[in-house]
């Protein structure tokens, strides 16, 4: 019934309209003065020249237009306009008609307007954000505010990203106090103290480079409210059982010319204190030479469990760090960053190792109990002059370690004590100079360093009786090692862009001198005089290099090529006063590396690479006399300087379809290397191993396949991931004087499901399955399967609360009691007043006491059990100073 | 054969030069409410519309500057007069009056995507009201587009049947347009003839053509989970287990606030 009424009304209304207005159609065509049809001309009619528009049309590609006019007026006013032409105006009759309009060119320009002069941003300009505008009620430190600023992301490890690129510098009041270790300020500077956050886009921190090198990266500057600011945060935590503590206090002070941040942290909860002093800085200097700690000797260790160290690390750590900056003059800063760490760790566990040789199998059972003492001092003194015309940065860095360890091995028949002192000292100076020479920029780098090791391992009772004591038991063996290294690396270079290509040649030379002295003593002062147990080795490496890189990118970004062509002359000289022998090796090496990437279609991409490289012996594989590396390992390399020539090839395909949310990738790589030295292991009773190098050409090859995919199911808000990899390698090895070709195969399958079940619940599952097989010439001797399943649930009942629950399973096919189950619980509550975070965690709820693991290597497998921390509850409170 | 290639090359060069330029520029201020439930979530951005006789190009100012930067032959030595702004709108809309077609092109993360539509999206109704904006006499028109009702004010004096975003089809440039709820409000801040006309730089060959629905979906997927999208593309982060869920949660809160797109229905 309703329908009828509607239709009826509709018909009536049409009738009324047709009576009320006569409808006329005005059509036509628009041409320019050359009789070319004009497309896009606007055509309007109105009652007269001042009244509103009644109808309009836009001319099409043929210049045609059409308008329906519903008006009773006798005449109409027609206007036709087109850019660059005078407006056509004419009074016409109100009737259906076809018109021909011809426009004549006009030089009259359109009226211009500008409301207010817009502030146009200059390159390198600053975006400034008022902290008050972004600060929420739960925000405490500046990091909480920073992550709300558009474009800024803070990754879980603390690294700051701006538009998906890591930031370059983190300044406080324009000064770079912390270099890359900005976590310390970001996580501890109270948001109350900050007035503004400035983002310096395309910031070039080196002023000389400002007009020469375009920087894609952004930097952040923190502006404080007061000229002199004191700030900081503190954390206090307590737990059981046994008694647990966690403490952290980080005060700081900022003035115009001076800044300082100090931190002290301590815990026995297994927590990693080094996280706050992670370094995110981008290093420009060469890393060919380092002053990183190297160890010659060690005590027998147990492999660490694969999960968070808070559940297994039995520690007692103290960390102090001070960072001070002084602005000496305009553009010149002097900085001191210094930190001291002291830790005492205990490890308990047992291992069962089975060695396979072509003729025999050997079993070793060890109960291990280790005490580790760590004491480390690290420091950096930096002088930076960042002026308009030149740049200088000189950094003096030192590392000092005073580490020691004590270990007890309990075997069914015997108890073996190990005592290790492994101090290390290193110092280096890195200099970087930039100077403009005409329009060219010259870079100069000079790195020089020195390191020293004096290590000492004592084993009671002495092992390798057959070698050291005619097969009779003896009380004690002591290995002393002293190693020193001095190096210098200097280079000069420049960068030049030639159209689409960029070349950056670098020319330089390096020199390194190493000295290794070692001696063995039995039963305290009884020196082993046999030359085979002494080293007096001098090793000198020098090199002159010319490195060049070409880069090419096609305009449409479908091709991307890179070719590196480093050329280097290397010279090695080894001298041993003890053996009265010397060895020399001179090589001119060319190590080209080629990479190509091609975009095949919008979602498909292929890449390939090929490279050739050489590796030459380091002093760690160059000593003639035996060294007792561990209580049951005796090594020597009484052979020529090792030379390895390695070829690498790889290819891959990637398919990424964002429409279907399907992402697939597959790759294959192959490596082949030739070596002039073969390694020989002699495994005796109780796993006593003698490793030697033998001059004999041999080869190694490795095939590796990888494939993976992920898919997001929009309706279920769930993403699925699956990855698989397979690795096959072959190498030759002398095992108990028999040449064996050792084949190893490994297969790994990983899958995960992540589901956003609701706004207050996220659930994740991940699983991992892997197998590892090794064998000699086709006969496999052991296959180990490992399983791992993890389920995590995250609840967000309220904005200021958060609860997490996780369950884990680890298992292997080898161990009899190899099933490990874990449950953990975490809860966080944020108080508004006073501003505090309360964190509660209950780890290892099932109180699983050991973690049982199994893994294998080329010719042995290990089953280990590691003593875990018991079920523990910890409460921590975090607040601002 | 060789001469043929040369001829072909010359022809293509000629084509390049013949490609004309945008000689007018209209600048708009856009105010929009990001969260439809929160009146305080109003944000503001600048949009630029470049105009020529046959075509136009609209984008946010930040996007326009980024494009011109990327297309410079030697970006190192050149200084630009405008600098990159933050933008919430990363698309560019090309309108072609000849083909009666509009193209929206957008790079979502690393995927270059576009879709085509008819230029005529709105049936405008001319209203009798008049007023003046910045010295231009403008007339009112109303129309419905993608789930919102709009009031537009256009200037017959400026003979461009164009406007900000996808709005076009009136006999004169749209100087002001907003929906009835005032969630999206564009107003002209400048109109000028360019002393140095801007090249068209229309090279969308690499952009994959998909449907509008698909593009909206891809953009939404990225906004919802940018970290996941990057991970799937092979970018790795140093995650620590516990913070991951926390970070994701924060991002999803951010995403929930962006619930008021200009087009409510396709």
TrEMBL record, chain A:
Pfam families: CarbopepD_reg_2. It comes from the Bacteria. This is TonB-dependent receptor. It comes from Salegentibacter salarius.
UniProtKB/TrEMBL annotation, chain B:
The keyword Signal applies. The keyword DNA-binding does not apply. Residues 242-266 are annotated as: Disordered. Pfam families: Porph_ging. Residues 245-254 have a biased composition (Basic and acidic residues). Residues 1-18 form the signal peptide. Keywords: Signal. This is GLPGLI family protein. It comes from Salegentibacter salarius.
